UniProtKB/TrEMBL annotation:
This is TRAP dicarboxylate transporter subunit DctM. Residues 45-169 form the Tripartite ATP-independent periplasmic transporters DctQ component domain. The chain crosses the membrane at residues 34-59, 71-90, 111-135, 147-169, 174-192, 204-235, 255-279, 299-318, 339-362, 368-390, 411-433, 439-456, 468-491, 497-522, 529-549, 555-581, 593-617. Part of the tripartite ATP-independent periplasmic (TRAP) transport system. InterPro entries: DctM (IPR010656), DctQ (IPR055348), TRAP_DctM (IPR004681). GO terms for cellular component: plasma membrane. It is found in: Cell inner membrane. It is a multi-pass membrane protein. Pfam families: DctM (PF06808), DctQ (PF04290). GO terms for molecular function: transmembrane transporter activity. It comes from Celeribacter indicus. Keywords: Cell inner membrane, Cell membrane, Membrane, Transmembrane, Transmembrane helix, Transport.
Amino acid sequence: MSSSLALSASDPGRKSQALPRAAAWTLEHLGRALGFLAALVLAAMLGLVVAGFVLRYGFSSSIMGAEDAGTWGYVLMTAFGAPLGLNTALAMRLDVLHALMPRRIQSIADVVGEALTLLSGLVLAHGSFIATQIMGGTNASLGLPNWIPFALFGLAGGLVMLFAALRLLAEGRVGVLVAALVLALAGFWTGLQGFRFDPGVPPSIALGLIVMMGLIVAAPLPHAFIAAAFLVSALGSPLPEPAMINAALSGMMKFLLLAIPFFLLAGVLLTKSGVAGRLVAFADSVVGHMPGGLAQTTLLTNVLFSGASGSSIASAAFGANTFQPELEARGYPRAKAGAIIASTSVLDNVIPPSIAFLILATATNLSVGQLLLGGLWGGLLLALALFVVIRLTCRDMPVTTRSSGRDRGRLALRSIPAFGLGLIVVFGIRLGLVTTTEAAGIAALYTFLLSLLFGVPGRDLLAAFRQAATEAAAIALLIASAAPFAFLLAVDNISGMIGSISAALGSGPVAALAVSVGILLLAGLVLDIGAAILLFGPLLLPIATGTGLDPIQFGVIMVVTLMIGGLTPPFGVLVFVVSGVTRIPTGALFRAVLPHVAALCIALLAICLFALGWAAFT
C-alpha cells in the first residue's frame, strides 16, 4: 500500500485524472441503465396500446385506465430518457453565436448555459416535490395517488442535474461546474425569496428574452424555457413554481402524444431491418439516372421515408451522417451536398406520418387525419419544387445507369413492407379504423415483426427501443417546457397584439396570412419546429380562421413555413446542424442552400394562394 501511495504522490497527473475517469465511468454505466429502463417502459406502453386495440376489435372490451396508464408511462419514460439527450442534437442547442465569441466571452457563456441547465433541473425537482405535497386524491381508474406523475417529473429534474454535473466532471471542467452551480443556486434562491421587479414588459416577453439569452449561450432549448419560466416569477409572472410544474406536466400528459415514440420506433426499426435500404435502392432505380441522380435519390428517399425522425434537427443530423459521404464520393461539392441534405430534410416534418402535425393537433385540437392528408399534398408540392431545383443545379453531376422496368418492379416489390407502414397510418386514421395513437402503435408493432422476420439481432432491437425512447423523451420535455410560456402568452394577450398588427395591414385573410408567415419565418430561424408550433399555433390559428382561412390549410402553411425558416440565414438551425456534423462552413452552406430556399418559398406561395382562393370561394 505504501508503494501505491508513493506512486500516487509522485504522479499527480494520474491523480488529477482520477475524478474525470470516475465521472466518465459513472456517466456511461448510468446512461446504459437509464436507456434500458426507458426502452423497457416504451415496450410496455406499446404492449398496452396494442392490447387495447385487440380487445376493442376482437372482444368488444377495453383495458380500464389504459389512457392514464399510458400517459403516466410517458412521464416515466421521459424521466429516464431526458438526461440522455443533454449532449446530443436532441438538446436543441443553437451554438452559432457561441462559436463566434472570443474565448473569454465563450467561457462566461459556458458558465451561464450550464447554469440554466442546472437551474432547470433544480426547478423540476423542487417544484415537483412541492406539487406532490399539494396534490391529493387518487386516480379513479388506476387506484394510485395523483402525486405519482409529479414525483416522476421531479426524478427527471434530479437526473438532469446529475448528468450535467457528471458530464462537466468527465470533461475536466470542474471550474465551470462550480461557477455554474453557484450561479444556478443564486438564481434559485432569488426566485424563492419572492422578490418582485417590474421590467416594464409583459412576463411572456421577459421570458422570451431570457430564452433568447439562453440560446445565445448555447443552453439546451427545453431547459432554457424551464429556467426562464422560473426566473420571470420575479418579473410579475402569475405562475408560481408548483403551478408552472403543473402547466408543464399537463402539456405533455396527453394520450395522443404516445404516438410520437411509436412513430420514432417504427422509423428506427425500418432502418435496422434493412427495409429502409430497400427504399433507397428503389428510389435510386426510379430517379438515379436523371440529372442530379444521387441528389434526386436523396430527395425521393426522404419522400418515401418521411416521418422517421421526430425532429427536424435530428433528421438533418441523420442525413448529414448518411448521405453526405456518398454525395461527396460521387463528385458533388461539399457545400452543395450539405445544402441538398438540409433542404430535403424539411419533408420529414411535412409528409405523413408527421410528428409535427401530431404536436399541432395537440396544441390546437385540429383533426390529426385531416392534417396528415393536407401534409401529404403540401409535402408532395415541396418535393416537386426541390426536384426541379435539383434538376437545374445538379445537371452536371454523375448519374447511374437507367434501371430496366423489370428491375424497378423487383425493387418496388422488395419495398412493399415499407409502403405497408404508410397504408396503416394514413388510411387507418383517415378512415377512422384506428385512433392516431393506435395507428402509431400498430405501425411500431408491424416494423418490430418485420425486424424479427429479417433476423435483426436482439441487441439491435434493444438499441432501437432505446433510441426511440430517448428521442421521444427529448421531444416530451420540449413540449412540457413550452407549456408555461404558452400560458403566459395567452395571459398577456399576445394574440391580441398580433391581431392588431394584422388589422393595421388590413382586415382580410391576405393580411392575416402575411403577418403569420412573417412571424413563423422568424420563429423558424431559432426554434425547433415543435417549440414553435406549441407557442404560435394557439396564437395564430384563431386570427387566421377569423378571416375565413381554412384551419387545416393554415396548419399546413404553419408547418411548411417553419421548416423553411430552419434553412434561412443568419440562424437557420437545419443548416447549422449539417454544418456541425460535416464541418462545412456555415457561410458556404447558406449560399449553397439559397436556390432550394427559393424553390420552397415558391411552393409555399402556391399553398398560400390556394388557401386564399379556397377562403374566397367558400
